[in-house]
Amino acid sequence: MNLPKIDSKTTTILRRLILAAMIIGTLVQIAFPAWQNAMNWRLPDNDDAMRVLQVRAWLEGQGFYDIINHRLFPPNGGDVHWSRLGDLPLAFVNLILRPLLGLEMGEKAAAFFTPLALGVAFVLASGKAAHTMENSKIAFFVGVFAALSTAGAMSYFVAGRVDHHGLQLIFLVSSFWGLFSHGKKGAILAGLMTAASLTIGFEIVPILAIMISWVAIIWAIRGEAVKAQALYFSIAFAIGTIIGFVINVPPQEYLTAVNDALSIAQVLPILMGCLGLSLGAIFLSQKAMQIRFLALPIIAVLVIAVAAQFPILLRQLYWQIDPLLMRLWVNAIVETHPLTKTDPSVQLSLGMFAVIMSAAAIMKLIIVTIDANNNPDDIHNRDVDNWSLLAVVLVSVTLMAVFWQARVAGQASTIAAFSASALVTGIYKKQGLKKAILLGLVLNPLMPAIAATAYKKAYPKKTQYAVGGGGTCRGLKAYAELAKLPKGLVAAPIDFGAQTLIATHHDVLAAPYHRNQGNL
Questions:
Q1: In Å, what is the CA distance from 293 to each residue of 182, 216, 223, 274, 305?
Q2: Using CA atoms, how far apart are residues 400 and 403, in angstroms rounded to an integer?
Q3: Could you tell me which residue, 482 or 20, shows the higher pLDDT?
Q4: Which of 101, 165, 171, 202 would bridge 106 by S-S if both were Cys, CB 3.0 to 4.6 A apart?
Q5: Under a CB-based contact definition with an 8 Å cutoff, are residues 284 and 230 in contact?
Q6: Which residues contact 260 (CB under 8 A, 6 or more apart)?
Q7: 3-class SS string, 360-407
Q8: What global pTM score does this model have?
Q9: What is the pLDDT of residues 401-446, one digit of tens each?
């Protein structure tokens, strides 16, 4: 019996339906249990509560540049030093839902839905990054699946997770997507996304530094072939940085330098680097490779010379924090410690996938380099360029997670996910479905979670004490009695600060943020 043929239009519709079902099914599974948490302000993290409060104050009329939480440590207020760019998604969803659901319910529903919407953007960007690597529709679907399966990344898109870390992952993946394309539009996308990342925070500065350096080095090697990429990336990065500066910094503080947020101290060195690289791309792309490589240290010296005018850049991060707070608060945060000092189950769930993919990326880079030496054309050179970027970034970030701070494990897992997608798709194209499935089982982002669960069952924790009755002290119920009291100033452990602010009408003495106004 001959089966009827399915035309290309029907195939496209089926693919889109399957994709939508994958995304919606995964997000609903993650989000549904969190609805009641959002309705009761049991948000995943203190930063999520503080983001809700910052957006609330903004929508109620607090100034665009006034990012002080005036209920924190009154009368000074607490400078959270966040960007309005990071507020935009939550504020936008708030404005849509408040007229439909009312102020209170609309605000809670916005906290629920915003990260889910950002999660859709994240998995689609991950799919596009994988697709651009392998130029295959299959790679897009594999990339989407890998992103959805990567717990270290998707944890930033659970309902209620409205802090800016999810945005950082979107900007990061989009930057890779743009750079992988090696075209004008991709370069513009990468430049703008890099600037947007710096605008909302410095969490991934080491990764961005590697990516920017890669753009410059590839230009020095390839010259005219990547002139457009270097030129348009530089221009877009410069324009995006200026826009970010205008968003973040009020006019009266344009000349104030800080080292933990975008300021004149970062903008001027960035603009100098962008100017140098763009001029190099215009005038030196057709020159000998040696001349282009001589230009790079000259540009670097100019950037360093400008940065040297701002000694604050040499200050230690969190230098504003009192040593006592540093000891009792910052040093007690698990994610500020390397994975080597965490529980083995955490090492497996957050580090295993990145470590495996780092090794795989190095092997792939060696293979494509050999292929390019045998077949020195644009396609093979592009593979070398892309895999060199992926391998260097992935290995670097994995090492940082393992030996520096576990907080970068999410970025490592994100990069590992679309790297695995590209590898599996490449095997599928060259060696068939069977071998691709076998490789996919090895490079499956679900495996670390399975291994971590197995470890917990094999070696259950035995503690002397048990906690019951909702010992996390989060949500409206936990603070109900406190909320009945007349408005006052609450002095409590620092981690209760943000929860008290969102669950009650009281002011608080302290909350876990990086500044130390008034010698708190």
A1: 20, 9, 10, 16, 19
A2: 5
A3: 482
A4: 101
A5: no
A6: 81, 202, 317, 318, 514
A7: HHHHHHHHHHHHHHHCCCHHHHHHHHHHHHHHHHHHHHHHHHHHCCHH
A8: 0.92
A9: 999 999 999 999 999 999 999 999 999 999 999 999 999 988 989 8
